[in-house]
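Posting this for the archive.
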Amino acid sequence: MRLGFLPVEIARTFERFAGIRRRQEGIGEFRGILVVDDFAHHPTAVRETIRAVRGRYPGRRIVAVFEPRSNTSRRKVFQREFTAAFSEADEVIL
């Protein structure tokens, strides 16, 4: 490989990679409800996260819980875009 890493070393590294905190992070499951945490704070990220979760858990109901704490959320900069992004969830709780 160009940088000197062997493919087997790269594969082992990816096998150990646990993901990034608060990026589609599985928190747990209780009574059939799976909780996935994600720090999406832009409409595009919200939309893509909902799509990814729906793809990973087909047939499951998606309830998005959103806490509008960022400056752009509080100032309603992307209000229309957030509405469209969250429309892909089955239910939204603010």
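The mean pLDDT is 84. The radius of gyration is 17 Å.
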